[in-house]
UniProtKB/TrEMBL annotation:
The keyword Cell membrane applies. Keywords: 4Fe-4S, Cell membrane, Iron, Iron-sulfur, Membrane, Metal-binding, NAD, Quinone, Repeat, Translocase, Ubiquinone. Residues 45-74, 84-113 form the 4Fe-4S ferredoxin-type domain. Pfam families: Fer4_7. It comes from Dehalogenimonas sp. 4OHTPN. SUPFAM superfamilies: alpha-helical ferredoxin. This is NADH-quinone oxidoreductase subunit I. InterPro entries: 4Fe4S_Fe-S-bd, 4Fe4S_Fe_S_CS, NADH_quinone_OxRdtase_chainI. It comes from the Bacteria. GO terms for molecular function: 4 iron, 4 sulfur cluster binding; metal ion binding; oxidoreductase activity, acting on NAD(P)H; quinone binding.
Amino acid sequence: MPSLKNFGEGLLRGLKVTLNHAGRKWITVQYPEQKLNMSRRVRGTDIIWDRESCISCRACERACPVQCISMAVSRGEDKKLKTDDITIDFGLCIFCGLCIEACPTGISIYLGNTYANTNYRCSTFAGAKTGATPSDGRCREIVRANDELLVDDAARPRSGYYRPEIAAALPPQTLLVNQTTYIEDLRKRGQK
């Protein structure tokens, strides 16, 4: 017959472990209500283009190792190059950052600072896998062009990858480092 002493010993050990961990910060977060900030120099899942500063030299297109960037360029009335059409296939992009490093202006193309970039639909192009462009046979929803790529720091913040002046303005990293609790985030939102 088991002794009365051993009867509650396991229960007490379990409660001790629970109490030891009760004061710790949470490892998981309440996503999507609470989003953690990635590193300021992260290679996010977006490419952001600045039409105003782009000189249409196509250096980003040439630097891309998977040829996911496609640009159509022409001369304007002032004899300067202008971008008529720019398309990026995010199904092909490996987010290597070579397009950002190749840009001679240093301010025309950026990687995004987001990681929640998903699509729920996938409709293929008409004539998929029969054309000559890299996007043939891919989902239409993961190909972005022209105005969809423009700078919008509220919806699609720029990463500080290869751009230290952008990194200085981004919020500090909370993913795996300096993580805040859900209650602390709620308090910060209430103070704004």
